[in-house]
Amino acid sequence: MLKKLPKDFIMGGATAAYQCEGSTDVDGKGQVAWDQFLVEKGRYSANPASDFYNQYAVDIALCKKFKIDSIRMSISWSRIFPNGYGEINHKGVEYYHKVFAECKKQGVIPFVTLHHFDTPKSLFDDGDFLNRKNIDYFVDYAKFCFEEFTEVYYWSTFNEIYPVASNQYLLGSFPPEVQFDIAKTVTCLHNMMYAHARAVNVFKEGNYAGEIGVVHSLETKYPASESLKDRHAAALDDALSIKFLLDATYFGYYSPETMELVNEILAANSQTVEIDEEDFIEMKKASNRNDFLGINNYGSHWVKAYDGESKLHYNTTGEKGTQVYQIKGIGERIVREDLPKTDWDWIIYPKGLYDLLIRIKNEYPNYNKIFITENGLGYKDEFEEGIIMDDARIDYVRQHFNSIADACEEGVNVAGYFIWSLMDVFSWVNGYTKRYGLFYIDFETQKRYPKESAYWYKFVSETKTII
Ligand code: BGP
């Protein structure tokens, strides 16, 4: 029997400002760290990306045509405040008003993130979220947006706090390319969770209309075997990448169990972190004020005990089988030969999403409601005379829809799903060959072509039946 998604389930498409807008140096926009970083690497550029800065009306019209109820997008902080604070760039403000007006015209709901990996460069260079002063600037920027963009109902504070911290300070795949610094990773996680809490409290105390939440990247960690050592390694990985964030979001503090595991990771790397107890006042206040949790989920991980030094190879080329992930004090994420993987070595395991949803319902019962804010398949799509048969993507999304439907049956409140991505966009460390969109973009001409998946998605949206 075909499964069904809930009747009012929102079907969306996700984007992020820096990955789709292009036009990174026009109309007074301030710089972000990526601008210089990508030039230095010389691999690809964020211009013109999907040229959403100019083509937004085309993309929003496509949403309407393909029954995509909502577009997840982010505001670029440095378009509004080129230096991160102080002087306002009115052209940036106007631009987002135009985008929201277009959404309204086409009946497409904007689902807006305030920060998606793009801290203004001046603040980034000054320590990004390791610098407590920047928390104040983020909260001021958030407040400005709540006041200004009354067209927006759904707000997310941050996109993926764990990948921000770990890509910047543990894996070094994002600027400033610091590796294996657990103390910086934990400090960044905590400071961003505190910034989130403060923004939520400003939103609720300001009585703005709408809903607010945070988008976390949550991917289930399973032990590589039933041995005690492997189970402990999985628990360590889980504590840092999942529990730390969900505890902060829904308890407003870190449980003793979480802290014990996180401190064990720090100790193995001869580091410590002090957290100011005062922060928990704001965090506790915010912990029952989240209207929703956004979950980005692409796969799952199997973790094995590992005693050696940290070693990494992040597959950014789509050359299958090249990934290495061994972190001192945590463990090794292994390759499961028996499970399907993408060309970028991401393990495809839809049951991981089901297990995650059930776990949240049980362990964080005040979660309120969940949106799957990202899920999708990075793929080397083949373009044949305007036709893109992306059956693998359809299959991937179908299996994840089935997991969501199963979780809903078990009483988890999942209110919507945003495929990553609405149209092809540029991928932070993989460039333009790793495509995710429902709409194919010829990056030379900027022409959009609906893929087979777009037609399938439309059918599911109309019928809520998972075919
Ligand atoms: C998430 C980010 C997105 C997007 C996606 C796919 O971590 O929120 O911005 O990039 O992952 O990742 P990638 O482009 O590395 O394949």
From TrEMBL:
| Protein's pathway | Carbohydrate metabolism; lactose degradation; D-galactose 6-phosphate and beta-D-glucose from lactose 6-phosphate: step 1/1
Does the keyword section mention Cytoplasm?
no
Gene Ontology molecular function terms on file: 6-phospho-beta-galactosidase activity
**What's the EC number here?**
3.2.1.85
Catalytic activity field: a 6-phospho-beta-D-galactoside + H2O = D-galactose 6-phosphate + an alcohol
Q: Where is the active site?
A: E374 (nucleophile)
| Enzyme class, broadest EC rank | hydrolase
**UniProt key word Hydrolase:** yes
Pfam families linked to this entry: Glyco_hydro_1
The domain of life is Bacteria
Keyword list (alphabetical) reads: Glycosidase, Hydrolase
InterPro entries linked to this entry = 6P-beta-galactosidase (IPR005928), GH (IPR017853), GH_1_N_CS (IPR033132), Glyco_hydro_1 (IPR001360), Glyco_hydro_1_AS (IPR018120)
Q: Which family does it belong to?
A: Belongs to the glycosyl hydrolase 1 family.
PANTHER family, sorted: GLYCOSYL HYDROLASE, LP05116P
Sorted alphabetically, which NCBIfam families does this protein's record hold? lacG (TIGR01233), PRK13511.1 (NF010036)
Q: What is the name of this protein?
A: 6-phospho-beta-galactosidase
